[in-house]
Amino acid sequence: MKDNFDATNIEELLQFFRKHLLENDKSAGTCETYCTNVRLFAEYITETFAENFDPRKISPLDVREYRNYLLNVKNLSVNTVNNRISTLNEFYKYLTNENIVSTNPVEKIRKIRMQSPPKRVTIDDLMFKRLRRQFEHYGREVEKVIFFLLFLTGVRVSELINIKVDDIVINPRSGTLKVQSGKGMKYREIPLNATCRQVISDYIEYRKAKGIYSPYLITTERSSKACRSSINKILKKHGKKAGFPEISPHVARRYFLTKVLEVSDISTAMELAGHSSVQTTIQYIPSTEKRKQDAVTKITNDID
Questions:
Q1: Are 174 and 281 members of one domain?
Q2: Helices (DSSP H) in 103-162: which residue ranges?
Q3: According to the model, what pLDDT value does residue 279 have?
Q4: Radius of gyration of the chain (CA)
Q5: 72 & 144 share domain
Q6: What mean pLDDT comes out for the span 19-48?
Q7: Per-residue pLDDT tens digits for 145-170
Q8: Is 23 exposed, middle or buried (0-12, 13-18, 19+ CB in 10 A)?
Q9: What is the reported pTM?
């Protein structure tokens, strides 16, 4: 960091912080989220105290009041508030290491405890069939590709919008999706079943006929690359018509991994999901009374 650095210049400060995050292998999306969260905090301080944001003047009390403001005035979820405070902690760790501030005012700020776990939205096979019929009959070519890639490969929405045409390999009896921009920049390959291959092939032919030459697979009428919000809007539009307005990319990912775990082992699920920890994958295993009863019954039958 240069010697004549101005600590009160928030944009210059964020420029160095973003560089630090990228050097520590954070994705571009994560960097943008971190910088946005810091910028929102700086705006809050400026508006509250009618003075320019100076990171050296922030106290633990300021952070606590900001946490309460997010929770009680802005009515943000507990997860969102905790994430923003966590971001500030990372930001001040960086400032401390760079000797811009002497202490970290966020270090001892506790996260808000959730009273109960958030409701987990799941989908059963019947609803999947309804959604599939909705997309097959009423979805545009690109919307069909979005649906089947989310539900039959389990890709994250951030991965979906970054898939390029060259990442797809389709042969007569097999196919592969190369995911090169996953969480943590991990590379993985996901097999494409016959349905996915056919839908993607039809869409690629449609693109050629329409003169769409974007390197990205998923495009919109206005852009050569789709964004998260456009994907969510498409899902919500068809989800409401099918009677499942709660549909989201993560619901699709959960359905995919649940089905994988029904027919395969947790190691395979980890590889397909791009998880680095088995604990993350375990969360996708449904724990139901029927599942527990079936497990005990199977053990008893095997012994008998």
A1: yes
A2: 125-138, 141-153, 157-160
A3: 80
A4: 23
A5: no
A6: 92
A7: 999 999 999 999 999 999 999 999 99
A8: exposed
A9: 0.61
Token pair, residue 5, equals 């650095």
Inside any domain, residue 112: no
At 186, the pLDDT band (50, 70, 90 cuts) reads: confident
Give the pair of three-digit tokens for residue 296: 């005990």
**139 and 61 share a domain?**
no
Amino acid identity, position 147: F
- Residue 213, pLDDT score: 93
φ, ψ for residue 303 (rounded to 5)? -70, -45
Could you say which of 78, 97, 116 is where a domain stops?
97
Q: How far apart are CA 29 and CA 218, in angstroms?
A: 18
**Both tokens of residue 192?**
């494409």
Q: How much of the chain exceeds pLDDT 70, in percent?
A: 89
Identify whether residues 155 and 283 lie together within a single domain.
yes
A 10 A CB-CB count for 262 gives 11
Q: What is the CATH number of the domain that holds 62?
A: 1.10.150
Does residue 199 sit in the same domain as residue 236? yes
